Structure formats: structure tokens, C-alpha cells
């Protein structure tokens, strides 16, 4: 049984609740243990995963959050830099599934967060478990 940490950027409560539900269901459905750590926004997710990874308490990580385009360049910063930080950790060998949604509007986010629709939280959790399995197999 693996210990999996879900790191969620709680920027939109109703959307995050769905993403976390989907991720937890996927992790627990596969027989693993899930915990949730909440950070303010997507830009904090890579740093939180880096700190948690250093502690050695978790085997894999699921990054969750929602970035919805606004009026300014801030969308690009939050969307691109959170993904860049997560990818840097991935290249360092940390098992992570990235479920940070980057959407044009709330309707796109709902369709992707809802476990009964596109279930991107569950998909990110499955990706994290697949990377953990790969790490175990490649040693
Ligand atoms: N606009 C969104 C943000 N912005 C906040 C940043 O992620 C960060 O918390 C702040 O700049 C302080 O460092 N975060 C999201 O998760 N989603 C957004 O749509
Ligand atoms: C991530 C965003 O684009 C958004 O939350 C920020 O909105 P704005 O660009 O209108 O300040």
C-alpha cells in the first residue's frame, strides 16, 4: 500500500471538492492511502510537493487545482509556472500526477473536475500511481 499525498490549491472551493473526490476515489479504489494538503494557489503547489517529498513520508503526489483565465497575463504565469515546477520535480524522479486544470471559463472547469464527467482528479491520481509503479519497476 502506497501513501499518496494530494496537494490541492484551494482557489475555487466547489471545483476543488470535485477534483479531490475523484483523486481520493482513484487512490483508495486502488488500495492505497490518501492524505490531503491544502495550499493557497497553484503557484504554491510545486514548492509544497518539494517540501513534502523531502520528508520521505509519501510515495507519490497528486497536484490539483484550477486556473481560470482572467483579464491579465496572470493566467499564463500561474498556469505555466505551476506546470514548470511540477515538471522539474518529475524530472528529479518524484512520482506526480498533474491535475491542475487551466481553462477558459468555469464551465470547462466543471466538466473536467466532476468525477461523473471527465474526472481529471481521478486521472491525475492514476498517473501518479503509474509513475510510482514505474519507479518501483525501474528501481
Ligand atoms: N489566479 C489563480 C491563482 N492565483 C494565485 C497564485 O497561485 C498564488 O497563490 C498567488 O500568486 C500567491 O503566491 N491560483 C490558482 O490556483 N488559480 C487561479 O486561477
Ligand atoms: C489566473 C487568472 O488569470 C485570474 O485568476 C486572474 O485574473 P485577472 O487576470 O483578471 O487578474
Describe this structure in words.
The protein has helices spanning 13-29, 45-55, 74-91, 106-113, 120-138; strands at 3-9, 33-39, 60-68, 96-103. It has 139 residues and is α/β, with parallel strands linked by helices. A four-stranded parallel sheet has the order 2-1-3-4, with helices on both faces. The mean pLDDT is 98. The ligand Nc1c(NC[C@H](O)[C@H](O)[C@H](O)CO)[nH]c(=O)[nH]c1=O is lined by residues 9, 11, 40-44, 65-68, 74, 78.
Question: What's the short version?
Answer:
With 139 residues, this protein is of the alpha/beta class. The chain is 53% helix and 22% strand.
| Major sheet size, sense and barrel closure | 4 strands, parallel
Helix content: 40-55%
Molecular shape? globular
Q: What's the helix count?
A: 5
Name the average pLDDT: 98
Strand content: 15-25%
When the domains are counted, the total is 1
**Separation of the first and last Cα atoms:** 17 Å
CATH architecture descriptor text: 3-Layer(aba) Sandwich
Structural class call reads: alpha/beta
CATH class descriptor = Alpha Beta
Radius of gyration (Å): 14 Å
Give the names of the bound compounds. the ligand Nc1c(NC[C@H](O)[C@H](O)[C@H](O)CO)[nH]c(=O)[nH]c1=O, the ligand CC(=O)[C@@H](O)COP(=O)(O)O
Let me know the CATH homologous superfamily.
Lumazine/riboflavin synthase
Number of strands: 4
Uncertain regions: pLDDT < 50 for 5+ in a row?
Answer: none
Lateral strand order in the biggest sheet: 2-1-3-4
H/E series, N to C? EHEHEHEHH
| CATH topology name | Rossmann fold
Amino acid at each position: 500500500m502506497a501513501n499518496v499525498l494530494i496537494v490541492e490549491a484551494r482557489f475555487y472551493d466547489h471545483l476543488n471538492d470535485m477534483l479531490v473526490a475523484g483523486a481520493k476515489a482513484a487512490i483508495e479504489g486502488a488500495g492505497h492511502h490518501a492524505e490531503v494538503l491544502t495550499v493557497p494557489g497553484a503557484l504554491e503547489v510545486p514548492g509544497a510537493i518539494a517540501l513534502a517529498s523531502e520528508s520521505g513520508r509519501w510515495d507519490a503526489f497528486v497536484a490539483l487545482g484550477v486556473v481560470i483565465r482572467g483579464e491579465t497575463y496572470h493566467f499564463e504565469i500561474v498556469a505555466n509556472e505551476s506546470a514548470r515546477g511540477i515538471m522539474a520535480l518529475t524530472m528529479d524522479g518524484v512520482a506526480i500526477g498533474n491535475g491542475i486544470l487551466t481553462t477558459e471559463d468555469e464551465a470547462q472547469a466543471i466538466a473536467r473536475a466532476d468525477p461523473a464527467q471527465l474526472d481529471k482528479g481521478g486521472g491525475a491520481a492514476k498517473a501518479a500511481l503509474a509513475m510510482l509503479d514505474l519507479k518501483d519497476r525501474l528501481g
